[in-house]
Amino acid sequence: KALQKMRDDRPKSLAELNAVIAASEPLVLGAMLGATRAVLGEGPTDAEIVFVGEQPGDQEDREGRPFVGPAGQLLDRALAEAGLDRRSLYLTNAVKHFKFEMRGKRRIHQKPSLSEVKHYRWWLMAELEFLSPRLVVALGGTAALALSGRQVSVTKMRGRQEFPPFAGFLTVHPSYLLRLPDAEAKAGAYRAFVDDLRQVRELAG
Ligand code: URA
């Protein structure tokens, strides 16, 4: 009976799943500070490629949309350079709530813990099952952890990956590029990121 109830309660569409996520209590620490809401995935539900980030940032939390802050703007530029149209992609995050720490008046991003990533993993996998994309792109280690259930080194594993049951690709997170202090290193890392996105386009094409 309990099993039957679990089956009956399971979201039957992406819209139902998103309603559950939106109504959920945030698990991440930032939630204790009260300003956080769930940022849901965005894009066409028949997208061939789904990009998975880490978690919404300050601006995403305010606007309620994924990848609209500085990392999102960098991603937009790189996507366009690689010949990918953001509007044809589905963008979502491993963790759906912004985790932060107050520093003065600023909300500073905090990396989600292993248990937080695991907590949100069920939602991510359910979301992907509804979307059933041809390729899932992990942006950074947290996304790869959420997709594979284990720690993944981006440096060692960058490139084609399986994220069962999906074909996948692992690359860096755009905020890693923003953080590189040296202009030359940054430019090189950005070119490598655009090259990865070109491969993504070819793999999904
Ligand atoms: N970084 C992410 O990982 N996701 C967002 O939505 C924005 C920034």
UniProtKB/TrEMBL annotation:
<feature type="domain" description="Uracil-DNA glycosylase-like">
    <location>
        <begin position="40"/>
        <end position="198"/>
    </location>
</feature>
<protein>
    <recommendedName>
        <fullName>Type-4 uracil-DNA glycosylase</fullName>
    </recommendedName>
</protein>
<comment type="similarity">
    <text>Belongs to the uracil-DNA glycosylase (UDG) superfamily. Type 4 (UDGa) family.</text>
</comment>
